[in-house]
Amino acid sequence: MHENPVPKPYIAEFEHLGFGMFIHWGLYSQLGQGEWVMKLRKIPKEEYRQLKSTFTAEDFDAKAIARLAKLAGMKYIVLTTRHHEGFSLFDTLRLSDYDAVHSPAGRDLIAEFVEGCRSEGIVPFFYHTTADWYQESYVNDFPAYLAYLQKSVEILCTRYGKIGGFWFDGNWDKSDADWQDDVLYGIIRKHQPEAIIVNNSGLHQQGEYGHPEIDSVTFEQGRPKPLDRRGRSKYVAAEMCQTLASYWGYSSIDFQYKSVKELILTLAACRKAGANYLLNIGPTATGKIVKLQEAMLETVGEWVRLFASALYTAKPCGINGHGSDFGLAGEDAKLYFFVHDLAVSGDWNVTVPSGGVGPRTFTGVDKRIRSIKWLDNGEELKFVQDADSDLFTFQATGYPYGVDYVVRVAEATL
User: Fold this and answer.
1) Quick one: which of 137, 165, 352, 384 is 20 to 30 A from 344 by CA?
2) What are the pLDDT digits (tens) for 367-400?
3) pLDDT for 1
4) DSSP E strand stretches across 237-363
5) Domains and CATH numbers, the chain
6) Are residues 380 and 305 in contact, defined by beta-carbon separation less than 8 angstroms?
7) pLDDT greater at residue 76 or residue 225
């Protein structure tokens, strides 16, 4: 046991990815009612299966999706190779005919996905369900089903080159079953030794540690908390996954979109906790990205580009301010201070009070600071540091009129 375990290099690389895109896409997308529509609408299996005959993927453009991720500042994409409905987007090599190759699409969409990611420098990850509503063996012959699952994962491990990792989901459906995790994870370690292994603990077990081979815990739809790794035999990363609207899969009637402001606040909160942020989109029936989702991601990307040096490799270091304010330790003797609720400067006739301009105080700064400036415009800021009282305060000037970043970041040089 180690008091403070050190991350393995591939886990540290995963943490440095910081921000990723989740994509839920399958037969359910044609119904436009979310990814659980088969289960919740109690659609008979044989009726649901007919959706395969209209699955064309005619608008699926993996390179365009990877370019969108890149514009958003996302470093990796997790795509549903198979969701709970049991339909696969990859060539299952005769394990089943319930896949994209045997649909009107007639293509291995995962091969296209991997190629598209690599063309834009994005790391491809594979989501794969463990629960399956289609395979009879899942209910009637669980050992046979596990063999099917393991062979499916081996195909994904061996036919697409090096991948970033596997994102499993569904063990919660049979919480008392023997899932033969040693066998499943052993297949991955044999063929993809540095692949990140995630097994989603679900909405009700956020941040829960699992099998020793798990490399990252999950926080589904919930703000992550810093992990207490003391006494752990292995350093495990953390990741929050969240929907852009209400559903993971495409819904044609879903107006519950989060604001760009909320997305920025959540990304900042994830980095404060040392967690990655995995933000989901749901392509349409044909694989097209909804214009609103595309525009929101591009807008978030504009914020990410301004403050990129503070987002990917900077790590929590015990610096805390008032309210949501916090600090991260960066590389090359830099500290980054994230400031929330900052007011806009301007004439009082047009400026609506929205927060504080003036001193922002932080504790936990244990090194002498030489200078501090806003990352976005380079404006030097006045500061005082009282090491004896563990207080560091700088004068946070307001946004210039016409500007509001939601969260503004200052860079301090040591």
Assistant:
1) 384
2) 999 999 999 999 999 999 998 889 999 999 999 8
3) 42
4) 237-243, 276-281, 315-321, 326-329, 334-340, 358-363
5) 9-306 (3.20.20.80), 315-413 (2.60.40.1180)
6) no
7) 76
Distance CA 383, CA 46 (A): 68
**Residue 274 Rama label (left phi>0; alpha psi -120 to 50; beta):** left
pLDDT computed for residue 353 by the predictor: 40
Given a cut of 50, whether residue 351 has pLDDT beyond it is no
- Tell me, yes or no, if the pTM score tops 0.85: yes
Contact indicator for 239, 246 with CB cutoff of 8 Å: no
Q: Torsion-angle region of residue 73: left (phi > 0), alpha (psi -120 to 50) or beta?
A: left
- Amino acid making up residue 160: Y
What is the identity of the amino acid at 402?
Answer: G
For residues 99 and 91, the answer to whether their CB atoms sit within 8 Å is: yes
Axis crossing angle, helix 260-272 with helix 291-306, rounded to the nearest 10:
50
First to last CA, the chain: 34
Angle value at C-alpha 294, between 297 and 288, nearest 5 degrees: 140
Find all residues with CB under 8 Å of 54, minimum gap 6, and list them. Answer: 30, 104, 285
User: Under 8 Å CB-to-CB from 112, ≥6 apart: which residues?
Assistant: 60, 62
Beta bridge partners of 396: 358
Tokens representing residue 137 in the block: 């063996």
What is the rounded CA–CA span in Å between residue 82 and residue 27? 10
Q: What's the Cα-to-Cα distance from 348 to each of 21, 351, 356, rounded to whole Å?
A: 41, 5, 14
pLDDT of 358: 86
pLDDT recorded at residue 346:
52
Please report the DSSP string for 114-161 in residue order.
HHHHHHTTPEEEEEEES--SS-THHHH-HHHHHHHHHHHHHHHHHSS-
| Mean pLDDT across the chain | 94
Closest CA to 217 of 207, 226, 202: 207
Average pLDDT over residues 67-93: 98
- In a 3-state reduction of DSSP, which class is residue 339? strand
Residue 116 half-sphere exposure toward CB, CA atoms < 13 A: 22
- The single-letter code of the amino acid at 209 is Y
